[in-house]
Amino acid sequence: MFRNGLQQLSRRTISSSARRQVDNMVKEKQKLFQANNGIPVHLKGGAKDAILYRLTMALTVFGSGFVVYELLNAAMPKKA
Question: Where would you find this protein in the cell (predicted)?
Answer without folding.
Answer: Mitochondrion inner membrane
